[in-house]
Design a protein that fits this description.
241 residues; alpha/beta; 6 strands; 58% helix
Length: 241
Amino acid sequence: MPFVVSSPRRAARDLAEAARESDRGEHVHLLNAYSIALADRQPDLAAEAFVGDGWNLPDGRPVSWVSRIRGDRPALRQIRGPQFMLDVCEQGVAVGVRHYLLGATPSVLEALRRSLEQRYPGIEIVGVDSPPFRTPSDAELVERDARISASGADIVWVGLGTPKQDREVARLAASLPVTAVAVGAAFDYAAGTLKEAPVWMSKVGLEWAFRFAVEPRRLWRRYVFGNARFLRAAVQHWSAA
């Protein structure tokens, strides 16, 4: 899977500017070890969302570690999803980026809107949408697209969980001239409804352990099996390179 090589701040600036200026759909994915493990297990997911003309950004320390071990020049630098969303919101104020929030519950979306408006005075949030957790019908997708189009959004932030959100941003980019970004738990972090790992844990690559400790019942399969599959895939592709 191709990755964008950049720094966190530069990637945020480039995305904000591209979203405001582009007249075509773009889809953006923050890929971590779990995302890559899923793509290794589900080739259709990789083909649909991760391989092509989208932006794949290296979220998660293990992805950047593998890049350095492989000897990539330049090596991938981690672009952490929750901070990336905040950086784009900050950078977007100056160029008038219009944001749309898709995902989570109504209460989380309201808290997220308030948080972003307090952090970044002048930010334009032109719509929010809390879709049902079930699979939407074709008619509901058409209605969703119509709401987004009518809002005039430049960026649609999608927090529906992996891999659902990755398929959705690819679909949105194919349907509308918007930049759709899959950001996972970034909504909850920015809204203050989910506690983030201490900075030192993020810096040494242990954010996953903190999340596992906070939500063990929900995340144990992801980290036990997902991390193992990621390592196996990394070794196999490294050996084949």
